[in-house]
Design goal:
Blueprint: E1 4-7, E2 10-13, E3 16-17, H1 18-25, E4 29-33, H2 34-47, E5 53-58, H3 65-73, E6 77-80, H4 83-91, E7 99-101, H5 108-117, E8 121-124, H6 127-140, E9 144-151, E10 173-174, H7 178-186, E11 191-197, H8 208-226, E12 233-235, H9 254-265, E13 271-274, H10 278-281, E14 285-296, E15 301-305, H11 314-318, E16 324-326, E17 337-342, E18 351-358, E19 366-369, E20 391-395, E21 398-403, H12 408-412
């Protein structure tokens, strides 16, 4: 569910007409719904009610400070994967003891940054990282709380580029080596083992891979406790998918996910962390674009938009599907026609959809990409010297620009020309 609905023939973001935002900020732009963000966070929080838990929003999905502060004020922790994300979370007002640091390539500088500013835990991904973390913590005279990310060799049955739990993926330590790696960690005075971490992938639409992975985590917990480790926290990652196409079968509900966690892990008495990102932010955002031209080609017609692959790269990168709808609601019974929907970037890959059935639209009309709140703005770039597009947050009948569009001068003046030129 989201809060982007047609009212009296016009698409609204909560109680604000999308066309009103377009008139104020220009196109293309992203717009997020506060109500949708909070609803989706609450669904996860309530799914684990009665269990000692923390919902840590995976901020790589959408990391604008206004979004982070909205969720943090509702009680969310944050899952970060870089020093920059850590600082962004702190700037949004998230305390260090509610920040989890994940990622395979943490540098000594990033580790130091988090130890100085406060951290809930490091999700350690490799033995070399463990050595650096131990040395840095001892040098600073502190002890770093750690979970170790286990790769359970479970096929998440998702897109190959977002699968993380198989043996050939770069993430985590093979579960077959878990006991020896935990022994190594226990020998390091700069580390305190607090639990186990696992994350098998993104955009999962079936609970079966989760359940298989969590059963392996439950068995490993018992084994590690028998070895003398105080396993008291289980970080289960994120990955629950969203329905990008309105006619797709809906993925499992957070309540079903919570029930499965209770069934597989509830007997262990551990604190549970989950790290949803896409399901919180995905359906909470639209990208809105204007039709520049309607072009007739050889055997096909094109909608050429002012939004491009640099603004929303998911279709080019993942062959991802987004519903694309007119901002003015089409009349009942309007016959749809097929379009290739493309952007102005000089790449054939700058294609959002091929032979997509759409109501007829004209140059100057607005269209909205649904389910664009996750991995949209955060993955955008200035390719073709196109400025990053604005982000807007709606709250009831109010809206605010939370990232403005830079001017061409600002973008160009970041370059420095050597004095020999």
């Amino acid at each position: 569910m989201d809060h982007f609905l047609y009212k009296d023939g016009a698409l609204f973001a909560e109680d604000v007409p999308v066309s009103e935002i377009a008139a104020a900020v220009g196109t293309p732009f992203y717009v997020y719904s506060t109500a949708t963000l909070l609803r989706h966070f609450t669904l996860f929080d309530e799914a684990l009610e009665g269990v000692d838990h923390l919902v840590c929003y995976a901020m790589k999905a959408a990391s604008n400070q206004a979004i982070l502060r909205t969720l943090a004020q509702a009680g969310a922790g944050m899952d970060v994967v870089s020093g920059g994300e850590y600082l962004r979370a702190k700037a949004a007002g998230v305390p260090g003891d509610r920040i989890v640091f994940s990622g395979v390539g943490k540098t000594a500088a990033e580790i130091r940054l988090a130890l100085e500013g406060g951290i809930r835990q490091f999700n350690v991904e490799s033995e070399p990282e463990m050595v650096v973390l131990d040395a840095t913590a001892r040098e600073m005279g502190v002890v770093a709380p750690v979970t170790i990310r286990i790769n359970p060799d479970v096929d998440a049955k998702t897109h190959a580029k977002i699968a993380t739990g198989k043996s050939e993926n770069k993430f985590g330590i093979p579960i077959s080596r878990a006991r020896e790696v935990y022994r190594l960690a226990a020998s390091m005075p700069g580390l305190e083992i607090i639990g186990i971490d696992v994350h098998i992938g993104s955009q999962l639409t079936d609970l079966a891979p989760f359940e298989l992975a969590y059963q392996k985590v439950a068995e490993l917990t018992e084994t590690l406790r028998a070895d003398g480790h105080n396993i008291r926290r289980l970080d289960l990652g994120g990955g629950l998918g969203i329905p990008y196409a309105r006619d797709n079968q809906a993925p499992p509900l957070p309540s079903d996910y919570g029930a499965m966690i209770r069934k597989t892990l509830g007997h262990l008495g551990c604190e549970i962390e989950i790290e949803p990102g896409r399901l919180i932010a995905g359906n909470a955002g639209l990208m809105v674009s204007e039709v520049i031209y309607v072009k007739s080609g050889e055997g096909r017609d094109f909608l050429i938009l002012d939004g491009a692959m640099n603004d929303l790269i998911r279709p080019a990168m993942y062959e991802a599907y987004h519903d694309i709808v007119p901002v003015v609601e089409p009349g009942a019974g309007v016959e749809k026609v097929k379009f290739d929907i493309v952007g102005p970037v000089c790449e054939t890959g700058d294609t959002f959809a091929r032979e997509r059935l759409m109501p007829p639209v004209s140059a100057g009309d607005l269209v909205a990409f649904r389910s664009a709140g996750a991995y949209g703005a955060v993955m955008s770039s200035e390719y073709n010297s196109r400025p990053l597009i604005p982000e807007v947050l709606v709250h009831n009948d109010q809206f605010a620009v939370i990232r403005r569009r830079p001017t061409f001068d600002e973008m160009i003046n970041r370059d420095t020309i050597p004095e020999w030129l």
